[in-house]
Write a structure and sequence with these properties.
This protein is mostly beta strands. 11% of the residues lie in helices and 34% in strands. The longest helix has 9 residues. The structure holds the ligand Nc1nc2c(c(=O)[nH]1)N[C@H]1C(S)=C(S)[C@@H](COP(=O)(O)O)O[C@H]1N2 and molybdenum atom (MO).
């Protein structure tokens, strides 16, 4: 039982396994300098694909809506395009973001901090389609099934997740066929994906093929086994849903190629980044330049155009002398959730919103290696 439940075990603390590297090269993160874009350009948004990316023929594909409904539906992509559309700007973060920084580290996609992006998703409101299908009174959830199939925890499955009826009917939930004004790229779920603003990434089922209204909670692997905050093998754990608050900073200055350690010149420096929470709007961001011993309030940019998108922040920093510094940032939301210095460990390495730490070397520009050569 313990072995079947455990998807893949734990990693040696100081070595990346070949399997983790294999996943890391398939599923890329958003380079943190792309935090400068309010809307993440296509190709810089992070990617997470459990199995293989399906190739879908848009002419023969149809979305099937069935189960506990009075009017089952089968809708082609062309028909979906003719319905009233809605665009939602939303920040999406993988529940496993930060996993590689947990100790011991769960063997899975080894995210550091980059499993996030913000996009304009266009499609049809899910509620309108459900209303048309007329769910029975006993409906409790909708199950969303993707076209991708694989084996996980020893179980062969289609990627599938469910949502309670009342969440599915929320007005911001869409079935999206466009990303930033372009048809969904294959890797982001062409031709149609679910988008539930505020929830962790796994909720947003890609390559959607069926939606089934059910009268009891869905027990599929991704719903009942994966994505739970489990302390040990015997713990069922609480299911993950909405994103906890997190602030991220654009790493300042310039990087060393291999270590990516930052070099910043003595003098003024603008620290900036973005922060989000799936529970409530971000109310504050604080920055530390001394490894978390002291904190200063950052200035928040005007609220984003959508309550589901991250909010920009900035703070000027004047490192007056050369030396070693550790920059940190943390966010709070209106619901009173505060980003912890160190998040609670759990078996899947989920929801690790521990504060970001960026080691920075502040240098005297005149003494910097190569500086004079570049400037003449
Ligand atoms: N069908 C399907 N949907 C899926 C997944 C998947 O593997 N298959 N991955 C999920 C996970 S874990 C995340 S974090 C998001 C990632 O969406 P993106 O790749 O468009 O950023 O998609 C979710 N939807
Ligand atoms: Mo994810």
């Amino acid at each position: 039982m313990a072995d079947a439940e455990r998807t893949s075990g734990f990693a040696p603390s100081d070595q990346l396994t070949p399997e983790e590297l294999q996943l890391a090269t398939r599923n890329h993160g958003m380079p943190l300098e792309a935090l400068r874009h309010a809307i993440t350009p296509i190709g810089l948004h992070y990617l997470l694909i459990h199995y293989d990316i399906p190739v879908v023929d848009a002419d023969t594909w149809a979305l099937e809506v069935g189960g506990r409904v009075e009017r089952p539906l089968s809708i082609s992509l062309a028909e979906l395009h003719q319905r009233p559309q809605r665009t939602v700007l939303a920040t999406m973060e993988c529940a496993g973001n930060g996993r590689a920084r947990m100790e011991p580290r769960a063997l899975s996609q080894p995210w550091l901090l980059e499993a996030v992006g913000t996009a304009a998703w266009t499609g049809i409101p899910l509620g309108s389609l459900l209303a048309e299908a007329r769910p029975h009174r006993d409906a409790v959830e909708v199950v969303f099934r993707g076209l991708d199939r694989g084996i996980e925890g020893g179980i062969e499955q289609d990627f599938a997740r469910s949502l309670p009826m009342e969440e599915a009917m929320r007005e911001e939930v869409v079935l999206a066929y466009e990303l930033n004004g372009q048809p969904l790229p294959p890797q982001h779920g062409f031709p149609l994906r679910l988008l539930v603003p505020g929830w962790y990434g796994m909720t947003n089922v890609k390559w959607l093929t069926t939606m089934t209204v059910v009268d009891e909670p869905f027990t599929g692997f991704q719903q009942a086994r994966g994505y739970h905050m489990r302390r040990d093998d015997d713990d069922r754990g609480a299911p993950l849903s909405r994103m906890l608050p997190r602030a991220l900073m654009v790493p300042p200055g310039i990087p060393d190629f291999f270590s990516r350690r930052r070099a910043v010149d003595v003098g003024g420096c603008r620290l900036e980044g973005r922060a989000w929470s799936g529970h409530a709007p971000v109310s504050a961001v604080e920055v530390s330049t001394d490894g978390g011993r002291s904190w200063s309030a950052a200035d928040l940019d005007p609220p984003p155009p959508s309550p589901w998108a991250w909010r920009g922040w900035h703070l000027s920093w004047d490192p007056a002398r050369p030396g070693e510094f550790e920059l940190c940032c943390r966010a709070r939301d209106d619901a009173g959730n505060q980003q912890p210095v160190s998040a609670t460990w759990n078996m899947g390495g989920y929801a690790n919103n521990s504060v970001q730490r960026i080691p920075v070397t502040v240098r005297d520009p005149a003494a910097a290696p190569g500086a004079s050569a570049d400037r003449t």
